[in-house]
């Protein structure tokens, strides 16, 4: 009730100052104002978490530890520190603190490459106290696993959002060195007696699945057929008859194991455009796998179990998958290509009971990682098929995740804190519809909402601010050159997109901004000057003359 009253007063203050012109009706901007408050909280929490972790860097190496709470605080682990935490610290700095992005974030990249590269450019776990690698001899299984994790979970999302950068260069050099140690992984056991992950049943599927995702996207980005050919070799192992996942006695559907299902769907989308004959060859076996997962892998609410015996249909682990959207991404992608309505319907079946049964749910127990993945699942699919009940659930559950953050900025003190940042930024980008104001400040609040043909924008700061308002671009086309924007794991969805070839009409409470703008101009940014605490309101739409 207190939050509602505060928000109501805030909206009234904003509207009192900003909506004096006839075309700015108060009710048109209430959602944009509210979204600005929510986006600001997500951004503040992300930057606070990033800075809190930086207080714990190893003074000698400059790298962040895997955890702050146990023996692994002496290690930079590639599959954890590098893959799950550091990249989203980079993204927070990119959006919110340019000096941090150009400074300490880049320094960590340089030190990581210098200190942890072990097999050519491929990294291994580094120990701070000894200033050496954790293992005396290179364990190629762990080097392969860590490299695939670092590229797919961390560097690939950075590429998709930022574009070309030093982090992309690091990704490509590792990817191009992987053929020296890996082609298709058919059997792997990660059993680290020094206190690592322990026996890990889904490692082969995770690595192969991650590589399918990486190679499919990098093929489109570069146009180099060697990446496509490599991906096809992996897919042949699963869809060519040698290793039929529908006959697997332990098919892990939760995080890690689900990667191969997503990877096969990504390559399938690619083949639809570049090799329809091979796509047709894979079609029945991929459909059979996706059908089997829906048939025996879900509970009565349409939510997935952690693991199943795909051959017999017996549930091997009845806990509920937090990254349910990762699996549904695969189904929805194939729906986009083949039009199988049951794959689209699986999404609506899964979200039907979220508000009644899955609020304050123990995704992965008390782990923040479970909440981060569950909310990401929702955001990515909502982007394709908006649903009012799903919006309500996301707005509720983000508060549960945010409440896990301590006053000092740290969440759990373990590497999945990075996923808290990742999902908070995803949520904030949804609430801003991809617009951004830079340089960012804690008191700067900007939000947006679509109202019919108009994008409604509200911008306010507590003290004078001057900077640029920028609009998002078709990143899936401009950066990756994808043929369609299919849903994929750890992507940051596109919301309101400025088309470079279109013209837009902008009207504002600041009449100096009124006029026609090209998509290029919106992407490059419009100068905004907030001279005091009065807000600026903007309506923008496509010019009817396009």
TrEMBL record:
Domain of life of the source: Bacteria
InterPro entries: 6-hairpin_glycosidase_sf, Chondroitin_lyas
GO BP terms in the entry: carbohydrate metabolic process
Name of this chain's protein: Uncharacterized protein
Species whose genome carries this gene: Arenibacter certesii
């Amino acid at each position: 009730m207190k939050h509602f009253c505060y928000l109501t007063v805030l909206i009234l203050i904003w509207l009192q100052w900003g909506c004096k012109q006839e075309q700015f009706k108060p009710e048109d901007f209430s959602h944009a104002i509210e979204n600005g408050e929510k986006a600001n909280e997500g951004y503040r929490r992300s930057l606070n978490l990033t800075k809190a972790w930086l207080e714990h860097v190893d003074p000698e190496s400059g790298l962040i530890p895997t955890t702050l709470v146990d023996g692994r605080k002496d290690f930079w682990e590639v599959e954890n520190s590098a893959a799950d935490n550091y990249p989203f610290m980079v993204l927070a700095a990119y959006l919110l603190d340019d000096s941090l992005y150009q400074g300490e974030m880049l320094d960590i990249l340089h030190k990581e490459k210098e200190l942890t590269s072990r097999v050519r450019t491929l990294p291994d776990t580094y120990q701070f106290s000894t200033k050496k690698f954790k293992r005396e001899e290179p364990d190629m299984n762990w080097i392969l696993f860590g490299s695939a994790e670092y590229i797919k979970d961390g560097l690939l999302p950075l590429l998709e959002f930022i574009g070309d950068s030093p982090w992309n260069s690091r990704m490509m050099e590792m990817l191009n060195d992987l053929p020296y140690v890996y082609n298709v992984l058919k059997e792997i056991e990660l059993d680290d007696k020094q206190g690592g992950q322990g026996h890990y049943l889904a490692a082969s599927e995770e690595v192969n699945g991650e590589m399918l995702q990486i190679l499919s996207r990098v093929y489109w980005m570069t146009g180099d057929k060697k990446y496509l050919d490599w991906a096809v070799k992996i897919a042949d192992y699963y869809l060519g008859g040698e290793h039929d996942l529908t006959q697997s006695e332990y098919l892990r559907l939760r995080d890690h194991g689900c990667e191969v299902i997503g990877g096969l769907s990504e390559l399938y989308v690619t083949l639809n455009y570049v090799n329809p004959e091979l796509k047709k060859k894979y079609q029945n076996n991929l459909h059979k796998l996706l059908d089997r997962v829906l048939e025996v892998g879900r509970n009565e609410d349409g939510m997935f179990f952690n693991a199943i015996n795909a051959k017999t249909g017996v549930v091997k682990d009845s806990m509920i998958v937090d990254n349910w959207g990762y699996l549904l991404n695969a189904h929805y992608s194939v729906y986009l290509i083949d039009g199988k309505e049951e794959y689209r319907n699986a999404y609506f079946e899964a979200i039907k009971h979220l508000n009644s049964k899955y609020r304050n749910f123990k995704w992965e127990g008390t782990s923040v990682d479970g909440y981060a993945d569950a909310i990401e699942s929702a955001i990515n699919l909502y982007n394709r098929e908006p649903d009012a009940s799903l919006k309500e659930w996301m707005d509720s559950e983000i508060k549960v995740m945010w409440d896990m953050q301590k006053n000092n900025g740290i969440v759990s003190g373990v590497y999945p804190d990075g996923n808290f940042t990742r999902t908070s930024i995803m949520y904030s980008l949804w609430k801003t519809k991809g617009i951004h104001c830079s340089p960012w400040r804690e008191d700067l609040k900007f939000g947006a909402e679509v109202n019919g043909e108009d994008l409604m924008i509200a911008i306010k700061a507590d003290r004078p601010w001057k900077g640029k308002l920028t609009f998002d671009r078709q990143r899936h086309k401009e950066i990756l050159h994808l043929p369609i924007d299919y849903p994929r794991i750890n992507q940051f969805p596109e919301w309101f997109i400025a088309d470079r070839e279109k013209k837009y009409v902008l009207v504002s409470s600041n009449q100096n901004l009124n006029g026609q703008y090209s998509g290029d101009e919106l992407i490059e940014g419009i100068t905004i000057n907030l001279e005091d605490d009065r807000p600026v309101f903007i309506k923008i739409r496509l010019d009817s003359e396009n």
